[in-house]
């Protein structure tokens, strides 16, 4: 495992292409619509404030159906496919990163990472799986005439509790992003500073 040579702080490194940034923004927007409309459907105070329950249900359903579309469309991008490959590979350095995170060891040398660290890889895998389960259970709840009552009841139970878990995980994801302005800058503009890349992702080769 070889760490990348130090990059000057003034150097800007290309981290994400325009296509990748739009995939992230569109997916985040659709996920945000799903979370907000779900809150309006399940919290009585918000339900009374917003009203028009039927409209909120339709917006929630269509936003959920559209959620995989940006990722599927993004498969046309070579850079996006390459990043999916990076997210799906777990190496020895990722295990070191996780052990350091569990020990709350924030020293850069203790947390080696490539373009994506182990926490980002676990989040990506979890949210992808959760989205597929939410989509499947949501379809069972939507097309009630196609499935037995027991299936719909089970789907509702899984959908509701998984939705709560997704909300908690998303809150943690947003909190981590708010704590790292340079990472947010990378998603907004596509570039990050060499100093940040050397500190946070020393194994990454742009």
TrEMBL record:
SUPFAM superfamilies: Transmembrane di-heme cytochromes. GO terms for biological process: respiratory electron transport chain. The chain crosses the membrane at residues 22-47, 59-80, 122-141, 161-179. Signal peptide: none annotated. Its main location: membrane. Residues 15-180 form the Cytochrome b561 bacterial/Ni-hydrogenase domain. InterPro entries: Cyt_b561_bac/Ni-Hgenase (IPR011577), Di-haem_cyt_TM (IPR016174). The keyword Secreted does not apply. One of its GO terms (molecular function) is electron transfer activity. It is found in: Cell membrane. GO terms for cellular component: plasma membrane. Pfam families: Ni_hydr_CYTB. It is a multi-pass membrane protein. Keywords: Cell membrane, Membrane, Transmembrane, Transmembrane helix. This is Formate dehydrogenase.
